[in-house]
Amino acid sequence: MCKRVIKGGVLVVGAAVFFLFCGLGVLITQHSEAAPVITVTEDVYDFGEVKQGDELEHTFVISNSGDETLVIEKVTSS
Questions:
Q1: Confidence band (pLDDT; 50, 70, 90) for 33?
Q2: Threshold 0.70, pTM exceeds
Q3: Is residue 10 part of a domain?
Q4: How many helices (H) and strands (E) does the chain have?
Q5: Is residue 70 included in any domain, yes or no?
Q6: Does residue 71 lie in a domain region?
Q7: d(Cα 71, Cα 68) in Å, to the nearest integer?
Q8: For 7-78, where are the E strands, in sequence order?
């Protein structure tokens, strides 16, 4: 009888913990609606055939269409 009560208690506690984490996931998802959203008009540009020594330039337009500040770090080129 005692083992049955313990197993039932463990089941109830396990279910409570499961639903607690599910509820926290929903709250976190709802709370984080305001976020930065990066928008890039084009992510690749082909210069075509280029001779060595030619100076090339192209501007990529990057904007934030989200509600929070967009932070861009560690930008590199190839």
A1: confident
A2: no
A3: yes
A4: 1, 2
A5: no
A6: no
A7: 9
A8: 38-40, 62-64
